[in-house]
Design a protein that fits this description.
It holds the Pfam family PUA. This is Glutamate 5-kinase. One of its GO terms (cellular component) is cytosol. One of its GO terms (molecular function) is glutamate 5-kinase activity. The protein is α/β, with parallel strands linked by helices. The chain folds into two domains: 6-276, Carbamate kinase (3-Layer(aba) Sandwich), CATH 3.40.1160; 284-376, Archaeosine Trna-guanine Transglycosylase, Chain: A, domain 4 (Roll), CATH 2.30.130.10. The protein has twelve helices and 13 strands. The strands form two sheets. Strands 3-4-2-1-5-7-8-6 form an eight-stranded mixed sheet, sandwiched between helices. It has a five-stranded mixed sheet with strand order 10-9-11-12-13. Helix 2 (37-52) crosses helix 4 (81-104), helix 7 runs parallel beside helix 8 and helix 7 (162-171) runs antiparallel to helix 10. The chain binds adenosine-5'-diphosphate and the ligand N[C@@H](CCC(=O)OP(=O)(O)O)C(=O)O. Residues 24-27, 160, 181-183, 186-187, 189-191, 212-215, 217-219, 222-226 line the site of adenosine-5'-diphosphate.
Length: 377
């Protein structure tokens, strides 16, 4: 795939039939950190324009914690996880009520979907989310997605919604991803640093970022900063989806293809969506170490990981959890979803399928990681 020009990428964003827009807490709040209804209304108006012209729009919105801490009587975003989760439970409803009113002015319905990384890397849940989103879009609804903060476990939560938005863009087969934040573009260094310059176009987000310095959040409410936004642009790029990153007040022009913010070109034709979830959605819970033969087969790209080629298992995980597949010298070869709980695996190591069936029973005559659930790294 040859690298498109900046103008071509912007034109493809303007022409996108399905678009995923992610808005960060920092774009929905006042300097104090509390929700700013005027900002939320302006965003809804910009998205409504696209929807009313026939576009399919998915909004990934942060802001549950920001919406909840004022009503609970706190003067800043709580720092401990349990209070954040409780605050999100209060704030999420308030946030949705505001969106309902804001979109309702344009006769547009919204629908809430709360997602945990843990749910959606499982095949059945993944398909459920996909089916529901497709149906909502067919019905003309604007789905509004957030991480299910109140239930997400600390170890495998997305935390910010940047990566989640890129995975959702992939899942709904979007033609554009729009990342809205509190800066108007990606800069060559955090904008507070003197001499930092706006980057208009990133033709290859995989390898062209050597001269750009990024840091974490600059606001009281945001979490990931530019680091997670670049990660999102990278996930979108390898899914064949262009990204535009800008401030929320530029949402309308950005979606129209005007020269605002930073655009990132897709670097690859579209890949399989679920594999991307396995590759990016969650941190592995354990490791299966394999021998040289299995390593070669896995590197070849089309093999499942069989117990016969597995040497050791580390970590504590359940069937369906993400795991690393490592070579004997500790190199990460792939990520995959385990087919068995970690405590079932030691008795299976080194055994071929016939032996597994004979000694352990037919339910063990399966790969440790099926090739459909394996992504090379
Ligand atoms: N190279 C960079 N270019 C632009 N912004 C940067 C850069 N490095 C760090 N940042 C910071 O990233 C912040 C946006 O991230 P964040 O606060 O997490 O926003 P959000 O709530 O929208 O997710 C900006 O306000 C800026 O301070
Ligand atoms: N899910 C959380 C998102 C937390 C957050 O700050 O995210 P972001 O502003 O996108 O960096 C919430 O709704 O508060």
């Amino acid at each position: 795939m040859s690298t498109p020009s900046q103008a071509e990428v912007r034109r493809s964003i303007a022409a996108a039939g399905t678009i995923v827009v992610k808005v960060g807490s920092s774009s929905l709040t006042q300097p104090s950190g509390h929700l700013d209804p005027a900002k939320l209304d302006a965003l809804a108006a910009a998205l409504a324009q696209v929807r009313l012209m026939g576009g399919r729009v998915v909004l990934v919105s942060s802001g549950a914690i920001a919406a909840g801490f004022g009503p609970l009587g706190f003067d800043s975003r709580p720092a401990d996880v349990a209070t954040q989760q409780a605050t999100a439970a209060v704030g999420q409803g308030l946030l949705m009520a505001r969106y309902e009113t804001a979109f309702g002015r344009f006769g547009i319905r919204v629908g809430q979907i709360l997602i945990t990384a843990e749910d959606t890397i499982r095949a059945t849940q993944y398909r459920n989310v996909q089916r529901t989103l497709d149906r909502l879009l067919d019905l003309g609804v604007v789905p509004i997605i957030n991480e299910n903060d109140s239930l997400a476990s600390n170890e495998i939560r997305f935390g910010d919604n940047d990566r989640l938005s890129a995975l959702i863009a992939n899942l709904v087969r979007a033609e554009a991803l729009v990342l809205l934040t509190d800066v108007d573009a990606l800069y060559t260094a955090p904008p507070s640093q003197p001499g930092s310059r706006r980057v208009e176009y990133v033709p290859n987000v995989i390898d062209a970022l050597g001269d750009i310095t990024v840091s974490g959040s600059g606001s009281k409410v945001g979490t990931g900063g530019m680091v997670t936004k670049l990660e999102a642009a990278r996930v979108a790029a390898v899914s064949g989806i262009p990204t535009v990153l800008t401030c929320a007040s530029n949402a309308g022009p950005a979606m129209m293809g005007d020269p605002v913010g930073t655009v990132f070109a897709p670097v690859k034709a579209r890949g399989s969506s679920r594999r991307l979830w396995i590759g990016f959605a969650a941190e592995p819970r354990g490791t299966i170490m394999v021998d040289a033969g299995a390593a070669a087969a896995i590197r070849g790209g089309r093999a499942s990981l069989l117990a016969a080629g597995a040497l050791e298992v580390h970590g504590n995980f359940s069937a369906g959890d993400p795991v690393w597949v490592d070579s004997e010298d500790g190199e990460h070869l792939a990520r995959g979803l385990a087919g068995f709980d970690s405590e079932e695996i030691p008795q299976m190591l080194g055994r071929n399928t016939a032996q597994l069936k004979r000694f352990l029973g037919p339910e063990y005559a399966h790969p440790l990681v099926h090739r459909d659930n394996l992504v090379l790294v």
